[in-house]
Amino acid sequence: MTAYPQPIADLVKQLSKLPGIGQKSAMRLVLYLLNVQHKDLTSLAQAISQLQERITLCSICHTFTDQEICSICADERRDRQVICVVEGPADLLAIEQTGHYRGLYHVLHGVLSPLDGIGPENLKIDSLIRRVESGGIEEVILATNPTIEGEATANYVQGLLKSGTVSVTRIASGVPVGGDLKFSDPVTVKRSLDTRSRF
What we know:
By secondary structure, the protein is α/β, with parallel strands linked by helices. It has helices at 6-15, 23-33, 38-54, 71-74, 89-96, 125-133, 148-161, 186-194, and strands at residues 56-57, 64-65, 79-86, 103-107, 139-142, 167-170. The protein has 2 domains: 6-54, Helicase, Ruva Protein, domain 3, CATH 1.10.8; 77-172 and 185-194, Dna Topoisomerase Vi A Subunit, Chain: A, domain 2, CATH 3.40.1360.10. It is 41% helix and 13% strand. The chain has a 4-stranded parallel sheet with strand order 4-3-5-6. A two-stranded antiparallel sheet has the order 1-2. A hairpin with a 6-residue loop joins β1 (56-57) and β2. The mean pLDDT is 91.
């Protein structure tokens, strides 16, 4: 038996399913929501319900959008000869926030992970290959994370594209800015040496 009414217990249970939210954090959120104005609570509920109703995947790059084609793919000012391949929409956002990259994207929605039953057919790889084969693409930047699965995915995609005329590149990785070399793992140090550039 819970000390709180069932609606509170139910919401705590649902919120605690979110990443990074435990039982205590969920309870704090619920107690906060109980004290906000009714109109604000209604607005929050409407915004959550609209996620499934209005958000879909871009028909070109597969990022989240509320249109058939996302604003990046529709932007004629973008460099349409370059595609940056990322694991998920959060990675796309991280690159966009730098303000440095002006090409297009392709979101795979995951990485190859045979142990988890995720193969090429579970990712948006086929549509990437079709985009490249349709012409006009000169470079594909593989920006998957430097994990075992990310590397395997990058190698797999590179293997599919290597027979074509498109240039396939991989983002550099190594010791982060502000990082300390002596605390870096051997793989990171090796990658830093392998991807060194002229100063």
